[in-house]
């Protein structure tokens, strides 16, 4: 019988809500393509406190009663061959208390792939009752992006060695084919030597050949932070496979024993069965009651029959005792004291009459606790190492010190650049002396950001052989960009030496954009030169594009009439370009700028684009362009975005710009956003518009945004895979809090920290990314708190317990750079990875982060990872200016 293991953890909780507060909901389960009803699907609905299982009937419908709140769902069981999704719904569902009967979104299930196969031994004879595992990486629509996560199915071979696995995600995107299903099997002391990819013919069976050759066992020890043995710890072995270039495709657990897996003995020791391939990479995920789970180092055992692993240390969960008092030292009863993000789940207690509390389930330091009571400011603090913790609350009407954006950097600019050079000079020199052409290319690319003049000299001296004219123009563009802020004359000389018209026009436009307003005459001269250069472009679309960019700059300089003429000419050319394919790029960029002077014509250029994704994105950009000057038109343009998720992605920035001139309209746009994450961000940026004119209204709107984020946390939405984070969204809005009242920043900063997800039991990539991104944003206001928050990610970095090609690893380095560049340097200097390219890559990213101008560093790093999920003001409307 097929056994399906879900990769998600559900924590069941009994409800305390009175029956009168429950809402009757109904929903349906359908096959995605045929829309046929699905009977027998079991769905687990949850609002974070109550969990209600329901089963669909013959008509595919179900109904039940559940308390209101933010509802998430998971498909627990379903008939073969349908695929179990990572999430039941494409987004968290907001369930109000009224009306008492409501409908949930239809759950659409895909029909899965079925694979047949046979398990044989080294002699080709069938192996009965072998354990067979199928694993793959799933990508599913989620909000405005995708959710990803590992999936696996288990079965046993029959007496003839044959097996059937059904319900595998079909690979619909050819670019993700290498993330498709692979198989592994084991029996006794035999196993497949690695995961096996099925034949391209979907009807052909897969053969899993078991062998004793090259099999190894992993052994090690699990201890606490004091070095004491931990007995009864559960060991789960994970493996991963990569592309030919070394990038990790899939990470998946291996189920080595149907009898419960591997457990540590009384001395903390463990040993896995000898069914692991010496060629593959492994990491151990260790969990034990009363401790935080921890992942071990990723390593390849090699030819050792018995591979010794480094000790794995688990942090204990403890009970923190303390007292809550007011600023006069009087005890405060009835205070909610809780931890969130420093345990396997949130834990809460209430202070007694003497103000004392005992909070269980808190990890050993570093950890935070939080306290809230009506009439008092929300508070948080790092937990002291001493046995007793005192929490001091301030009344809402008591004055507190303001907290503002940190203006001074830890190091001055020269010190930062010196440290960045120190990080990569050895690798750059080695690459240029003996590296491949690609390694030399990378070395010059990163070096040009730190020492552009020297990089140009090296290129002129032949550091990279056989550079084409276009290659050299590419580097000159980068070098001119790096020189622009501090050495304008040198940058202009480099830009003028660029041979290709397109690249030279772009470099000149970037230089014009980099100059301060006191240099308007020089900017105008550069724009004229860019226009002249663009006339030599071979492609009419390229000429029109740079005309539009120059017109964009001229509008900023007040030369409206000339800009209008240029845009009219560029728009006429754009109208002749195709509606599909490569020609749409220039059409979209031109429409974006043209919207400043002729919105109807701009919309005509893009309204019928064949690629709806590009159309919707461009409409969102146009709405942002005109939001401050034409708020009603911006609302109309945003309404033209066909996809609800893409519309939501554009709404926060539109609300930010619109709220200054039309706050009510901005608020209306915000509350229409279906994604609760993006609705909160939209409301938060709308609040910014009232910060000066009506601070009370601004505070009320901001509280509404934070309330939405709190509801997502309470619903346990962070248990599931996904890039969105309530903690990061809250931290993104801290500049709004400062604009309303700097005395509120400390309180809302602690709210953001309290929104963190609990330690996950499985895949930790999204969790680590959340920690790193949150810490990057916190460092704008409090570097000490940011450093403590980043510690779990740093711990994983030090132990090499993360995918060495994973972006969350680099995100941790970015955050460390924002907190203290010297600390960040020490972290990469400690890196002892066996992958040479890993050390260089980590150093490259460190140097790249420090090369960014400090005034825009946080925004640029946030854009680099996690991309469009979050947004900070300051990015130029014209994306050809973003390189500066």
The proportion of residues in beta strands is 15-25%
Q: Termini, distance in Å?
A: 60 Å
Mind telling me the CATH superfamily name of the domain at 113-314? Immunoglobulins
Silhouette? globular
- What is the overall pLDDT average? 89
Characterize the biggest β-sheet: 5 strands, antiparallel
How would you sum up this structure in a few lines?
By secondary structure, the chain is an alpha+beta fold. Among the domains are: 3-109, Sandwich (Immunoglobulin-like); 113-314, Immunoglobulin-like (Sandwich), CATH 2.60.40; 327-393, no CATH class; 425-516; 539-610, no CATH class. A five-stranded antiparallel sheet has the order 1-12-11-14-15, with no helix packed on it. Strands 17, 21, 22, 25 and 26 form a five-stranded mixed sheet that branches.
Describe this structure in words.
With 884 residues, the chain is of the alpha+beta class. Among the domains are: 3-109, Immunoglobulin-like (Sandwich); 113-314, Immunoglobulin-like, CATH 2.60.40.10; 327-393, no CATH class; 425-516; 539-610, no CATH class. The strands form 8 sheets. Strands 1-12-11-14-15 form a 5-stranded antiparallel beta sheet, with no helix packed on it. Strands 17, 21, 22, 25 and 26 form a 5-stranded mixed beta sheet that branches. Strand 23 (281-287) and strand 24 (294-295) form a beta hairpin. The radius of gyration is 29 Å and the shape is globular. The model is unreliable at 1-17 (pLDDT under 50).
What is the topological layout?
Blueprint: E1 3-5, E2 23-31, E3 42-46, E4 51-55, E5 61-66, E6 69-77, E7 93-95, E8 101-103, E9 107-109, E10 113-120, E11 131-142, E12 145-156, E13 162-168, E14 182-187, E15 190-191, E16 206-209, E17 215-224, E18 234-242, E19 248-254, E20 262-263, E21 269-271, E22 276-277, E23 281-287, E24 294-295, E25 306-308, E26 312-314, E27 317-326, E28 336-339, E29 347-350, E30 356-363, E31 368-372, E32 379-382, E33 388-393, H1 413-434, H2 437-450, H3 452-460, H4 469-483, H5 488-496, H6 501-514, H7 520-534, H8 540-556, H9 560-574, H10 584-594, H11 599-606, H12 612-626, H13 631-639, H14 644-658, H15 663-672, H16 676-689, H17 695-714, H18 726-732, H19 734-740, H20 745-754, H21 765-778, H22 783-798, H23 807-819, H24 821-830, H25 836-851, H26 857-864
Parallel strand pairs: 2-8, 2-9, 10-16, 17-25, 17-26, 27-33
Antiparallel strand pairs: 1-12, 2-5, 3-4, 3-6, 6-7, 10-13, 11-12, 11-14, 14-15, 17-21, 17-22, 18-19, 18-20, 18-23, 23-24, 27-30, 28-29, 28-31, 31-32
Helix pairs in contact: 1-2, 1-24, 1-25, 2-3, 2-4, 3-4, 4-5, 4-6, 5-6, 6-7, 6-8, 7-8, 8-9, 8-10, 9-10, 10-11, 10-12, 12-13, 12-14, 13-14, 14-15, 14-16, 15-16, 16-17, 16-19, 17-18, 18-20, 18-21, 21-22, 21-23, 22-23, 23-24, 23-25, 24-25
């Amino acid at each position: 019988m097929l056994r399906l293991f879900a990769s998600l953890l559900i924590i069941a909780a009994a409800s305390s809500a009175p029956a009168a507060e429950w809402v009757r909901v109904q929903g349906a389960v359908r096959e995605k393509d045929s829309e046929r009803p699905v009977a027998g699907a079991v769905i687990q609905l949850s609002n974070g406190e109550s969990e209600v299982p329901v089963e669909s009937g013959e008509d595919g419908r179900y109904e039940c009663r559940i308390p209101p709140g933010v509802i998430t769902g998971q498909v627990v069981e379903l008939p073969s061959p349908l695929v179990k999704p990572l999430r039941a719904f494409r987004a968290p569902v907001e369930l109000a208390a009224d009306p008492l009967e409501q409908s949930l979104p239809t759950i659409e299930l895909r029909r899965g792939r079925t694979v047949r196969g046979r398990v044989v031994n080294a002699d080709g004879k069938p192996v009965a009752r072998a354990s067979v595992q199928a694993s793959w990486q799933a990508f599913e629509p989620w909000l405005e992006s995708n959710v990803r996560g590992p999936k696996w199915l288990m079965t046993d071979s029959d007496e003839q060695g044959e097996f059937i696995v059904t319900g595998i995600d079909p690979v619909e995107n050819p670019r993700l084919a290498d993330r498709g299903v692979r198989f592994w099997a084991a029996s006794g002391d035999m196993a497949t030597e690695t995961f096996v990819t099925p034949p391209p013919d979907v009807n052909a069976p897969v053969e899993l050949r078991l062998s004793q050759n090259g099999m190894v066992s992993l052994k090690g020890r699990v201890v606490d932070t004091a070095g004491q043995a931990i007995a009864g710890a559960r060991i789960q072995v994970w493996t991963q496979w990569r592309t030919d270039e070394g990038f990790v495709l899939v990470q998946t657990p291996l189920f080595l024993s149907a009898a419960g897996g591997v457990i540590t003995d009384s001395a903390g020791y463990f040993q896995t069965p000898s069914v692991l391939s010496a060629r593959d990479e492994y990491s151990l995920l260790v969990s034990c009651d009363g401790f935080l789970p921890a992942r071990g180092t990723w390593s390849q055992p090699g030819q050792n029959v018995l591979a010794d692993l480094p000790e794995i240390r688990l942090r204990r969960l403890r009970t923190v005792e303390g007292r809550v008092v007011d600023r006069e030292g009087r005890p405060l009863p009835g205070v909610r004291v809780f931890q969130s993000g420093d345990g396997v789940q949130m834990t809460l207690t209430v202070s007694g009459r003497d103000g004392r509390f005992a909070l269980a389930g808190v990890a050993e330091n570093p950890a935070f606790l939080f306290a809230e009571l009506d009439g008092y400011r929300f508070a948080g603090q790092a937990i002291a190492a001493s046995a007793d913790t005192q929490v001091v609350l301030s009344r809402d009407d008591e004055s507190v010190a303001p907290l503002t954006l940190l203006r001074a950097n830890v190091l001055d600019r020269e010190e930062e650049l010196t440290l960045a050079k120190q990080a990569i000079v050895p690798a750059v020199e080695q690459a240029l002396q003996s590296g491949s052409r690609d390694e030399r290319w990378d070395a010059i690319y990163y070096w040009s950001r730190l020492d552009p003049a020297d990089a140009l000299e090296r290129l002129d001296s032949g550091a990279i052989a056989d550079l084409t004219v276009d290659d050299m123009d590419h580097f000159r563009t980068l070098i001119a960009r790096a020189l622009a802020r501090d050495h304008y004359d040198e940058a202009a000389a480099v830009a003028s030496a660029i041979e290709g018209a397109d690249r030279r026009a772009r470099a000149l436009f970037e230089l014009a954009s980099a100059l301060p307003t006191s240099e308007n005459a020089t900017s105008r001269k550069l724009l004229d030169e860019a226009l002249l250069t663009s006339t030599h472009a071979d492609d009419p679309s390229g000429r029109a594009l740079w005309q539009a960019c120059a017109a964009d700059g001229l509008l900023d300089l007040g030369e409206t009439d000339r800009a209008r003429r240029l845009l009219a000419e560029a728009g006429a050319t754009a109208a002749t370009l195709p509606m599909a394919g490569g020609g749409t790029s220039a059409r979209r960029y031109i429409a974006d700028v043209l919207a400043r002077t002729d919105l109807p014509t701009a919309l005509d250029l893009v309204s019928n684009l064949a690629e709806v994704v590009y159309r919707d994105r461009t409409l969102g950009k146009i709405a942002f362009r005109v939001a401050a000057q034409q708020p009603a038109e911006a609302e109309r343009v945003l309404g033209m975005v066909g996809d609800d998720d893409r519309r939501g992605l554009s709404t926060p920035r539109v609300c930010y710009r619109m709220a200054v001139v039309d706050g009510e309209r901005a608020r209306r746009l915000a509350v229409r956003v279906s994604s609760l994450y993006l609705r909160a961000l939209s409301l938060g940026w709308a609040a910014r518009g009232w910060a000066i004119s009506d601070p009370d209204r601004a505070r009320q709107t901001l509280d509404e945004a934070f309330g939405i984020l709190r509801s997502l946390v309470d619903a346990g939405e962070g248990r599931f895979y996904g890039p969105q984070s309530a903690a990061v969204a809250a931290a993104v809005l801290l500049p709004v809090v400062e604009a309303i009242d700097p005395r509120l920043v400390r309180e809302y900063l602690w709210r953001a920290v309290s929104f963190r997800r609990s330690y996950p039991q499985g895949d930790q990539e999204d969790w680590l990314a959340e920690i790193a991104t949150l810490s990057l944003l916190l460092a704008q206001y409090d570097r000490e708190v940011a450093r403590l928050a980043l510690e779990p990610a740093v711990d994983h970095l030090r132990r090499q317990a993360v995918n060495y090609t994973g972006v969350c690893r680099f995100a941790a380095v970015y955050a460390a750079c924002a907190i203290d560049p010297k600390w960040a340097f020490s972290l990469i200097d400690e890196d002892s990875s066996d992958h040479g390219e890993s050390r260089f890559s980590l150093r490259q990213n460190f140097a790249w982060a420090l090369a960014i101008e400090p005034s825009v560093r946080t925004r640029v790093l946030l854009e680099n990872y996690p991309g469009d999920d979050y947004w900070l003001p300051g990015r130029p409307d014209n994306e050809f200016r973003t390189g500066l």
